Amino acid sequence: MSSLLEEFQQVGRDLYAAGLVSSHGGNMSVRQGEGLMITSHGSRLGHLAQVDLVEVRPGLEPRVEPSMDLALHQAIYAAASEAEAVVHAHPRHAIALSLMGEDIRPQDLEGQHYLGIVPVVPRGENVAQALADALRQHRIVVVAGHGSYARGESLWQALQWTSVLEESAEVLWLLRVLRHDT
Ligand SMILES: [Zn+2]
User: Fold this and answer.
1) Which residues line ion ligand 1, judged by CB < 5 Å?
2) How many structural domains comprise the chain?
3) Can you give the CATH number for the domain in which 51 is found?
4) C-alpha 81 – ligand 1 centre gap (Å)
5) What angle do CA 160, 164, 168 make, to 5 degrees?
6) Domain span at residue 161?
7) Separation of CA 90 and ligand 1 centre (Å)
């Protein structure tokens, strides 16, 4: 059985290798009872070490600065009981589509099967609550012009929804190009 660190490392490497995050972009966490384990502020997901994982729980002073998205992760765990892990990435085609002012509706089989409609929530003050609310019903949600937040039973599953979303978003983009050409 792989350790928690290994899961963070392998999922982080895959996210980076697939171009789903930039060198220092994105973040990930795993629920741990009343608290969570989250990547540190500014860590490189493609090159995580033990020092890059921060435990956050009531009554414990974090060892290093957690990701700036900590409050979003906490809101997601509070709202969505299914969430055992959260992956935040910057999938570029999905980000571009999120700026078109509507939810993302996959047209490919895998996207339709696993994701259905992917809500897009606006950036702004209430983003944490809007995101957490949407993740009660949906496996992955996009914050407009920023990136995706996926919840899963594990980091691997949250990675899967992120990867499926980006594939669907790229297909949607290609479709737009093709339709424009004909
Ligand atoms: Zn981000």
Assistant:
1) 147
2) 1
3) 3.40.225.10
4) 23
5) 170
6) 4-181
7) 6
